[in-house]
Write a structure and sequence with these properties.
By secondary structure, the protein is mainly α. About 75% of the residues lie in helices and about 0% in strands. It contains 25 helices and no strands.
């Protein structure tokens, strides 16, 4: 007999079942498991649906990690049952979190070595420079970092079941279908939502829809879904890799840099552009134009009571901070301590400018903070002027903005001519001030009641909007550039869908274009 079940349950019910099973096991009870012949359920087939489902599961595992049931089970189990409990419940997500944290520790450790000058000193030591076994170990490490070692269990399993020729062919087919891109992107989803739940709690149900996904997701929608979980972290790692190359390219070879950072650059590219790669019609030019119009409308709309996050950036920004409002003191302190890592750029890079390379005085670091205060003051002046003069005194407001621009250009020209400031110094200054401003923004969001009482919340919102616009431009520009070439869209369609559906999609585009032309002629 075939039994078909359509499971229409929320994640909350699944979490309650898990808690009941834990309690029954603690009381030395038995939990029976019933097998069914067939279970019918809608599958998540789109990247956005899969990401929301994985976020939901990661939130639930974060709450289970904090529960007293897991704590008691871990203390009362024997070693082998404890391992079974770990790897079948919260262990997978904890290992994922440790993996991403290891990447961060590696990158910030490299940043410390290159900014402090310790890497250059170590590279000149004969005991390290002429150590051939160490170089061989590092080369093998870079080979393992690419990910071949992680694929060996899968190859062995398929090889033992179906033959090693089939295993090798399936492995190559997975690479052509961009499976590493998908699973690396999924790694960021699990890590973000599991880690945030550990710090602040707040697991909730996320509807996925489970529809037949062939529609195009707009750029604003992808930005809302992946801004905090992938885009911000991807840009942070990209800045770390660029700074590591800028400050160490004089004594380090290009081959060594590639061997050290190749896998990390792959991770950065995946976290930044995988949503657009797996988005149907993601590189079609007309879709890109519509996405840009929708993005501008969304980012500039004001929020308010009753305005959904899909219509306004301000409403979405407020929703993204809900976990901080219900977090405890430990979560707020942890958020502030994590935000302090962005000040490392400023303290280390300010002494690597050509202007300040000959001095190590602490006044240089103090002068950098003075520049940051002046930039924030100028932004506050422009914001106040826009509210007071943009409607009634447009000429005065434009004159103020023109004077500010001319002053900035004059200061830049003086620094280039008199202080011999180079283009590399200008790039380094951007990497000094941008992360510092983002760190200040994160601290202000964590201390929201204090900042609101001081009257600076409007300035914080303006600064946050500016950062969102910059991040949106960084993401949108490469996608729009690739959309200029028609073969990119054709390649994406063949990659996402089978040959028959791709051919039908091409025919539907042609017919849709003819119908559009016929309609426009009829109107004329």
């Amino acid at each position: 007999m075939v039994i078909q079940m359509y499971l229409i349950g929320s994640f909350t019910s699944q979490e309650e079942v898990s808690v009941k099973r834990f309690s029954s096991t603690l009381r030395e009870g038995n939990v029976t498991h019933h097998e069914y012949i067939q279970v019918g359920k809608g599958r998540d087939v789109g990247l956005n649906q899969i990401s929301m489902f994985e976020a939901k599961i990661a939130n639930g595992n974060g709450e289970q990690t904090l529960s007293r049931d897991i704590y008691r089970l871990g203390h009362r189990f024997d070693f082998f049952r404890m391992l079974s409990c770990y790897f079948t419940t919260v262990g997978f997500y904890f290992s994922t979190l440790v993996t991403v944290l290891t990447v961060y520790v590696f990158l910030y450790g490299r940043l410390y070595l290159v900014l402090s000058g310790l890497e250059q000193e170590l590279s000149q030591e004969p005991a390290i420079r002429d150590n051939k076994p160490l170089q061989v170990a590092l080369a093998s490490q870079s080979f393992v970092q690419i990910g071949f070692l992680m694929a060996l269990p899968m190859l062995m399993e398929i090889g033992l079941e179906r033959g090693f020729r089939t295993a090798l062919s399936e492995f190559i087919l997975m690479q052509l279908q961009l499976a590493p891109v998908f699973f690396t992107f999924s790694l960021g989803t699990k890590t973000h939502y599991y880690g945030r739940t550990l710090l602040h709690g707040g697991a909730k149900y996320r509807p996925t829809g489970r529809g037949f996904v062939v529609f195009h997701a707009k750029f604003a929608e992808n930005y809302r879904l992946y801004s905090r979980s992938h885009f911000v972290k991807g840009i942070e790692m990209m800045i770390l890799l660029i700074v590591y190359q800028i400050c160490g390219h004089t004594y380090r070879s290009t081959v060594a840099y590639v061997l050290i950072t190749a896998s990390l650059w792959f991770m950065v590219g995946t976290w930044l552009f995988a949503p657009f790669l797996f988005n149907p019609s993601g590189f079609e030019w007309q879709k890109i134009v519509d996405d840009w119009t929708d993005w501008n409308k969304w980012i500039n709309n004001r929020g308010g009571i009753g305005v959904p996050s899909e219509k306004s950036w301000e409403s979405w920004w407020e929703e993204e901070q809900e976990h901080l409002q219900y977090s405890g003191k430990r979560g707020i302190i942890a958020e502030i301590l994590l935000a302090l890592r962005f000040f490392i750029y400023q303290y280390g890079l300010v002494y690597h400018l050509h202007v300040t390379r000959k001095t190590k005085s602490f006044l240089v670091y103090g002068a950098s903070w003075l520049v940051i205060v002046l930039i924030l003051f100028v932004m506050k002046t422009v914001s106040v002027g826009r509210r007071k003069f943009s409607a009634s005194y447009q000429l005065v407001f434009r004159l103020i903005k023109g004077l500010i621009f001319l002053t900035f250009v004059s200061i830049l020209v003086i620094l280039v001519t008199l202080a011999h400031m180079t283009i590399q110094d200008i790039i380094v200054c951007i990497f000094i001030f941008m992360p510092t401003g983002w760190g200040m923004l994160l601290i202000a969001q964590a201390l929201r009641p204090v900042v609101k009482k001081a009257g600076f919340w409007g300035s914080v919102r303006t600064l946050a909007r500016g950062y969102e616009i910059v991040m949106g431009l960084l993401l949108f520009t490469p996608v729009a550039f690739l959309a200029w070439f028609p073969f990119v869209s054709e390649f994406q369609t063949r990659m996402l869908f089978n040959q028959a559906f791709s051919r039908g999609l091409q025919i539907s585009r042609i017919l849709g274009g003819h119908r559009k032309d016929h309609t426009s002629r009829h109107k004329e």
